[in-house]
Structure formats: C-alpha cells, structure tokens
Write a structure and sequence with these properties.
about 200 residues; Rossmann fold; 7-stranded mixed sheet; 6 helices; 7 strands; globular
Length: about 200
C-alpha cells in the first residue's frame, strides 16, 4: 500500500507533528510507559525505529540511563526536526537515514539492549510485514534485550485495515518473530505498547 503522507517534505512533517499532538493527547503517557520499561536498566544502548521528530528520544534520554541512542528514520526532514527539538541532547544521538521497510536496514548497526518503536511499524504499509520487521529487530538485539513495540490496533473505525493488526495479533506477531515473555505495558486510544524479550543465547 503506497505511503499517503510524504514525511520527507519538511512542511508535511511539521503538519503531521501538530495534528498528531492534537488528535492523540495520550501519547505522553506512552512516553512514560517506555521510560518505566527501561528505567531499571543501566547504560542502555537504544535503537529507535521510525524515530520521527525526537519526542520519544527526548523522554528516554532524560529519564533513563542511556549509553547510546540510534534514531533510525527514512526522512531527513524528521531528523532535522528531531535535532532541533532535542537541542543539546542531539549530541548524544546518532541519526541514521534508513528505511526499515528494506530488508537490509539492520546491516552494520551493531547490537543494542533495546529496540523501541512508537506508532511507526504500520509504515511497512501492510500488517503482513510486521512479523518480518520484528524478526529483523531481533538481529540487532543482544540476548535478553527487549523490543518495545507500540502501534494502533484494528477497530471498527479503522480507515486502513490492511495496515493495522487486531489487538490480539500484536503479541502473536512478537511471538512469531521469536520474542518471549511478551507483556502488555500500556493500552490507550486504540494503541498498545508491548514488551518482548530476545531469548538468551
């Protein structure tokens, strides 16, 4: 399914940020849940998929013990907005321009303690691509590392059902990708945050 919003256009990216802030006022509570999930880990290496304007990055950099942060997004415009939003914190972020719809996106990134993604996985443009995306995320996770995956789930009002799995299919996708101990951390606004653990070596 083709992309309907061109996030590579700076004005379009700005419009999306403002519209999302208004339409989804609950997003800050998801930021809090991401931070809580990583708060007990020390010196965490984080990779964010679909990092966008840096809102989740700011929350994690401020509230967690982060050793390194890689922000992966296909849009240079979003990276520029993220750098502006982060201010001095941007010096702690490695901005990588790469499309996670491409199978080779993990190449050369190294290993991480956590892969995080918020309201981005649906940009694979079909829910059948979710399991392959999560399976590739495991390739860059250390044993016992975690993925924190949050995205919308299917409701009767969903406009693009091909993009959006049913709520019960979200944890199944994590399990099918090889993650264990899958747990729901937050559910609000037809969006759920799940944690999955990469099995020990």
């Amino acid at each position: 399914m083709p992309i309907r919003v061109d996030f590579r256009d700076p004005s379009t990216a700005l419009t999306w940020i403002e519209e999302t802030r208004i339409k989804r006022p609950y997003r800050p509570r998801f930021f809090t849940a991401f931070c809580a999930a990583l708060s007990r880990r020390s010196s965490v290496r984080i990779l964010e998929l679909g990092s966008g304007p840096g809102l989740l990055a700011r929350a994690l950099l401020v509230h967690c013990d982060v050793r390194s942060y890689v922000a992966l997004d296909f849009s240079p415009a979003m990276h520029a907005l993220a750098a502006e939003h982060l201010g001095p914190l941007a010096s702690r972020v490695d901005f990588v321009t790469r499309d996670f719809r491409e199978p080779a996106w993990p190449d050369g990134l190294g290993l991480f303690d956590a892969v995080v993604t918020l309201q981005a996985a649906h940009e694979t443009r079909h829910k059948r691509h979710l399991v392959p995306l999560l399976a590739r995320a495991r390739l860059v996770l250390d044993p016992c590392g975690v993925v924190l995956y949050a995205d919308h789930y299917l409701t009767p009002e969903t406009k693009l059902p091909a993009l959006t799995p049913a709520r019960e299919d979200q944890p199944l996708a994590l399990a099918q990708a090889g993650f264990v101990d899958v747990e729901l951390l937050h559910d609000e606004g037809n969006m759920a945050l799940w944690r999955g653990t990469n099995p020990p070596a």
